[in-house]
Amino acid sequence: MSYRVKPISREEHLAFATARPAVSHMQVPSWGDAKPDWRAESLGWSDDEGRLVGAGLVLLRPLPKLRRYLAYLPEGPVIDWTATDLEEWLRPMLAYLKERGAFSVRMGPPVVARRWSAEAVKAAIADPRAGRLRDVAATAEEPRALDVADRLRRMGWRQSEPGGEDGFAAGQPRHVFQVPFAGRSLEEIRQGLNQQWRRNIKKAEKAGVKVVQGGYEDLPVFHDLYVETAERDRFVPRPLPYFQRMWTALRAEDADRMRLYLAHHDGEVLAAATMLTVGEHVWYSYGASTGRRREVQPNNALQWRMMCDAHEGGAAVYDLRGITDTLEDDNHLLGLLRFKVGTGGEAVEYLGEWDYPLNRLLHKALDLYLSRR
């Protein structure tokens, strides 16, 4: 089978993505609208009979002072990653992007490699010999992921190091935490929470914490808490216009694509979070909270309300996004990992992101630029 890659309309792209049970929120057309520093294109894969069999959102970032681009497909493209002719899917994409002016291509195959149960992660955290999650025996492994990785290497793809998403340092988390919802009742999901989580949800209810959905006008309140969270957890916050642009772009495509939740107590918002939905996959995207009145457990109340709404909406997976791979006690992100483990879900490792240098000189220059930042 041979495939042809060419630009497709937003409408074709969206129809293809929404016809599938699970596609990353970074692989729908509206995600490109949320990234004004990148030029977005929708690409389609057609088979010999002209049928659309794959799609991908590619973001193009120009190299300073040159009309050459870094091409980035976050958590994509959406193709048949189990295909025995995987090379035939990727070669025409590389050819098109090279013709388009790309000097390097980065993609994130949505292929799961390993899974660890909540019990396995909890045991790893408690084990002083376990330095990283990847060094701990997985609860389940996906053999096909190793085959995909081997094929990519033989084609000349290189696994990239994890990074941020600032400027050229595009990158998505390789390790995430997910709660499977498919085939489970809400009560079964609640029973899957650890005792501390269930206790904290009851504390919040007794204290009078109320979780409500917010609107565009509430984004500044969310952002104030988010900036406070960034100072506390030592990361660089995104500006308010980023979230306002996300809200406008994503909800223009689908009113349920993005939601905002706020946890109120005694007239004050103590915690807030954004939730993204594509098909049967729901993501807890950005979270924020104040250090005040933490004893009323607003974060547990907030997450439980989001999980309840996701379940009611037919979600098969509730995704709490990135987790740290480092398990040492001095890792400041370990507390967040413990919080997510309390949901009773599982740690999931994807294949990570892969680079293909179309122009080795420019690609090397980019690596040098990033290493000096």
Automatic annotation (TrEMBL):
Transmembrane segments: none annotated. InterPro entries: Acyl_CoA_acyltransferase, FEMABX, PG_Glycine_Bridge_Synth. Gene3D superfamilies: 3.40.630.30. Pfam families: FemAB. Coiled coil: none annotated. Keywords: Acyltransferase, Cell shape, Cell wall biogenesis/degradation, Peptidoglycan synthesis, Transferase. PANTHER family: LIPID II:GLYCINE GLYCYLTRANSFERASE. Belongs to the FemABX family. This is Peptidoglycan bridge formation protein FemAB. It comes from Streptomyces pharetrae CZA14. The lineage of its organism: Bacteria, Bacillati, Actinomycetota, Actinomycetes, Kitasatosporales.
